[in-house]
Structures are given as C-alpha cells and as structure tokens.
Amino acid sequence: MAMILILDDRATNRAIYARLASVIEENVSAELFGDPLDALEWLEGNRVDLVITDFKMPGMDGAEFTRRFRALPGGAAVPVLVVTAHDDRGFRMRALDAGATDFLQSPIDHFELVTRARNLLALGRQGGAAAGSTAEGSAATPSPVPSLDPLQAQGALGLARILDSLPAQVSAADREGRCIYANAALAATVGARPAELVGAGPALLFGASRGERSRAADLTVLASGAPLPPYREEAEGCELLTSKAPLRDADGKVTAVVTTSIPLGPEPGR
C-alpha cells in the first residue's frame, strides 16, 4: 500500500488532492496536514512513499519543509512534489534546491497531478528495489570479476530480463565511471545493444553535458554511500526524472551506482 502525505494550509486543496490520490493507483492511503510542523512530527515516526506539499504556507514555506524533511531518517530518497502558484523560476529553483523532486504550477491540471504522482511513486519503488536487491545480495558468493559482482550476486540474466521490460532507462557504472550494465530502454536512445555499452563512459551513454553531470552525481553517491533524491533533468527531446542508488558487493562496499531515469514527456516548446 502506498502512503502519500499531503500538506496544504487550505482545507479545500487538501480535499481535492486526497480525492486525486485515491485514483493514482489501488490501495493508496493519504495523510492530510495543514501545518508543516505537524507533518514533520508525524513523519518522524511514520513511513511515506510520496509527499505533495504547497509552496506558500504561513510560518514555513514548501522549500523549508522539504529541506527539513530531507534531513529526517528515510527522508532523503522519498519523492517530493511541490505545488506553487508563483510563475517565477526563482520560487521553483528554491524548491528544487531544497530537495524537491518535481513541481506543478497552480491551478493544477488534475490529470497531470495524477500522472506525475504515479510516475514518482514508480520511481521511488525502483530506488527501494535497488536498495533491497543489494541487501539480499550481501550473503552471495563473490564473483571472480569484481566490477560485475553486485549484478552477478543477483543473477544477472534474470535481473537483466526484468530491467529490460521497464520503460525507464536503467544503467550501472563502476567507481571509475565505466558502464557495467545498461538496459534495453537506455541502449535504444543511443542506437546500440545493451551489451555494446558495457565499458563505455558516461559521455557515450548520456551525451557530453548530461554525462558530466551524471558522473558528478555518481561520485557523490560513491562518497556518501547514500542514494540521491530523484531530480529532474533534460535529455534529447524530453524531461527525465532521475534517481541514483549505491550498489554494494558481498562485503558491503559500494562498487557501483545504479541510475534510473523515467521520461516525463516532451520538453516545453518541442
């Protein structure tokens, strides 16, 4: 069952978001709050899969709320969708800089909110599955090929078949930035077969500019050992919602970074 926290100081908006949450998928549960401090107190002892928060609220805005939520245990990897009535890039950047995953302009399009929320929940689950897989693989026998050990520990062929069925672009890069896995969706973006991308650098997989950003994000994950909150980025002809998670070997050492990107749709104006 998915748990969604909805934060808005207006009761009417909370009621609307709660109704929309019920159609995102089956068995969704929503907790509604009008006060950011009450929401943060609840989050200290409860699990949540998605946060939807207003930006402008008395006492604490959505950016500050997001920043405090990210500092809570378990809050770093949960998608946060910020709703703002401000048609100003500065407000959006404040929310994103605080750790927001995505944002919507108010008044919201109901269909767009449901679609964005569904994608964010899917992204959060994929990040959790990657973390769970590494935990399950901790007792596996090490592979003679160190860079492929995390994948082989899970049964690489079966895992590859599962990942190839996803509409998301999934890849894994070792500590030197070399690709050790790419799924079919990612390979299709560069006109190659997945096996042909093994050993490639980030520039070949993602292009020069995005590849440089991806490598910098990978180094952050390798240094901290923690996943990065999902973030939006531009690719060729579309926007992507990207997350990164550490991949550990049998000894618990982070040996690679898994990158998952879900297409959000065409870029504005294209």
TrEMBL record:
The modification 4-aspartylphosphate is found at residue 54. Residues 3-121 form the Response regulatory domain. SMART domains: REC. InterPro entries: Bact_response_regulator, CheY-like_superfamily, PAS, PAS-like_dom_sf, PAS_4, Sig_transdc_resp-reg_receiver. GO terms for biological process: phosphorelay signal transduction system. Keywords: Phosphoprotein. Pfam families: PAS_4 (PF08448), Response_reg (PF00072). Residues 159-199 form the PAS domain. This is Response regulator. It comes from Roseicella aquatilis. The lineage of its organism: Bacteria, Pseudomonadati, Pseudomonadota, Alphaproteobacteria, Acetobacterales.
